[in-house]
């Protein structure tokens, strides 16, 4: 008997119960007006959810603005919209609520999470404006699940997780790498191993910008290790090039720079590109015969193996030549032996 209840609640100014009654009558605008007079969170929620069910989203938003300002009520409201698939309407509600005087971290955080799922194009601007007002760990998880790598780097940077920011840019360079940002963040990392990972990344993907990176990292690098890092890369490049002249020049450069260990290592990295007579001469001239001895032992072993195989092949050929073929049988078809 909603019509009767409407008259009774109106006469006694019980606006909370009047709002409930008006919802059942489908009088949503009047229900919102009564909710405003009742000014109760419970009433606002009841009328808001009824308006959502009735797809009166403008009125639902008016009610929702009185609910989202209460952090402990926000989750239920979000679930109510999401469970019914009204993501656009929920986003509009939270966007309208950001300007409220009582806007709190939960609202900014939940809107960021919704953007990551349904409107990723809005995520960068939202974070740029409100990163200090979101729960960064929660938004980080949402950005990672949505594969928003640039936004993930931005948040790691703001959260001072510089190591993770650098790793994300290295692992997802197409989306996340920005030259200025990378150079700024790499200087702040705690794990020095990332310096060398960054060098390898630039060698592989941004070789023309390597000098710029080295200018940033130079004060922080172990110079001996860095030279070794690049020597190793140079050896690998020479070996993969299959260019004997390049391998020989690299070997001579190591000797000119006094890099004995690199000289020894390159003998095996570029083993099949280096003429043994050249290696012997260089080792003798620079008093490195002892260091090159493992290389010569390997060369000698290979030569002896080849000689043994040739001897075996020659012996087999000679044995085949001395085999006497059996005389063919002749038959006399005239009856004579």
TrEMBL record:
Organism for this UniProt entry: Canis lupus dingo (dingo)
CHCR repeat boundaries on the chain: 1-60, 65-211
Gene Ontology terms: cellular component: clathrin complex; clathrin-coated endocytic vesicle; extracellular exosome
Cited Pfam families: Clathrin
Gene Ontology terms describing biological process: intracellular protein transport; receptor-mediated endocytosis
Domain of life: Eukaryota
One annotated GO molecular function: clathrin light chain binding
Protein name in UniProt: Clathrin heavy chain like 1
């Amino acid at each position: 008997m909603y019509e009767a209840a409407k008259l009774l609640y109106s006469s006694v100014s019980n606006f909370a119960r009047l709002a409930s009654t008006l919802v059942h009558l489908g009088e949503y605008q009047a229900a919102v007006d009564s909710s405003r007079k009742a000014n109760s969170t419970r009433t606002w929620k009841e009328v808001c959810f009824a308006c959502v069910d009735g797809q009166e989203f403008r009125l639902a938003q008016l009610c929702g603005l009185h609910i989202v300002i209460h952090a402990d009520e926000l989750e239920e409201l979000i679930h109510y919209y999401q469970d019914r698939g009204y993501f656009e309407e929920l986003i509009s509600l939270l966007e309208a609520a950001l300007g409220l005087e009582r806007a709190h971290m939960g609202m900014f955080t939940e809107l960021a999470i919704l953007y990551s799922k349904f409107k990723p194009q809005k995520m960068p601007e939202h974070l740029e404006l409100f990163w200090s007002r979101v729960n960064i760990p929660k938004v980080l998880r949402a950005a990672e699940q949505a594969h928003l790598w640039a936004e993930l780097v931005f948040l790691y940077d703001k959260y001072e997780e510089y190591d993770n920011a650098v790793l994300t840019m290295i692992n997802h360079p197409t989306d996340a790498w920005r030259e200025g940002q990378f150079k700024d963040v790499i200087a702040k990392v705690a794990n020095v191993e990332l310096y060398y990972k960054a060098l390898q990344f630039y060698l592989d993907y941004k070789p023309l910008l390597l000098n710029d990176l080295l200018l940033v990292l130079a004060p922080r690098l172990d110079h001996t290790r860095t030279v070794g890092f690049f020597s190793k890369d140079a050896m690998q490049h020479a070996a993969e090039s299959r260019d004997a002249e390049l391998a020989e020049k690299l070997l001579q450069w190591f000797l000119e720079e006094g890099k004995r260990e690199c000289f020894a290592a390159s003998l095996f990295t570029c083993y099949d590109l280096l003429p043994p007579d050249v290696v012997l001469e260089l080792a003798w001239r620079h008093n490195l015969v002892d260091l090159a001895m493992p290389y010569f032992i390997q060369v000698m072993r290979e030569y002896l193996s080849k000689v043994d195989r040739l001897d075996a092949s020659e012996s087999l050929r000679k044995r085949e030549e001395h085999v006497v073929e059996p005389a063919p049988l002749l038959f006399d078809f005239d009856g004579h032996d």
